[in-house]
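--- STAGE predict ---
source: upstream dedup step, 1 unique chain passed
mode: sequence only
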Amino acid sequence: MSDALRATLLVSCRDRTGLVAALSDFVFRNGGNIVDADQHAEAETGQFFMRLVWDLASFRLDRRGIDAGLTALGQAFELTYELTYSDQRPRVAVFASKTPHCLYDLLLSHQLRELRGELVAVVSNHEDLRTTAGHFAVPFFHVPVEPGQRARAEARQQELLAELRVDLVVLARYMQILSPELVARWPSRIINIHHSFLPAFVGARPYHQAKARGVKVIGATAHFVTAELDQGPIIAQDVCHVSHRDDVDDLIQKGRELERQVLTRAVRLHLDHRVLVSENRTIVFG
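--- STAGE serialize ---
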């Protein structure tokens, strides 16, 4: 990861002539050097999306000046935009239950500094993963979810997230359904891993469903969480081939490999500011 101070701008708006030129000219006129630019225009919807990254080493505007300049461009072109800086590291909390493989992958990636964020907490409704979190020196918080007491548990979770100033919540096989109220507080800031290639095999026991259907590939899907179960905008997916020789345990083992890889990939994409949400889907810049 580069230590150079950079700004990343994510833009979405109605497509129109001169937009790319105006954004590029803003960087050029103020002494910036564009290091990455990617754009996508949709003929079907007439929408435009862009990711623009520039080096701030010789940039003549301070952050207040950048905000003012982008505000003016936003008004001129009716832009919706998000601006972030490379010295701002989002704070991440991971929710998990008993299954450790996705959590391990995230913790290891964080330890190797492969994530552009700080993993500040593991929150679980069980005690099983306390040792795992402790091995990586990440604080562990046990918040049990007793039958009929979900609201009480979520109130405690919200307190923790506020105290820790969390920016992103990752559900690493957290086997609880979040309430619509909690989800509404975290729009496009909760990422879940579903152990299936959505939209196929939603809900529980997807590998049993896959075996019963005789599928030839299985998959995993990382998506933003919405109030509708397993229906949020998809960030990343992957598949692997299987055959009639694979029993359910084989499918589960292969699926676990996919799950941890896909979830970590999705978290990286989000922390790299490469994901834009457009209605119920995503634009993911490579």
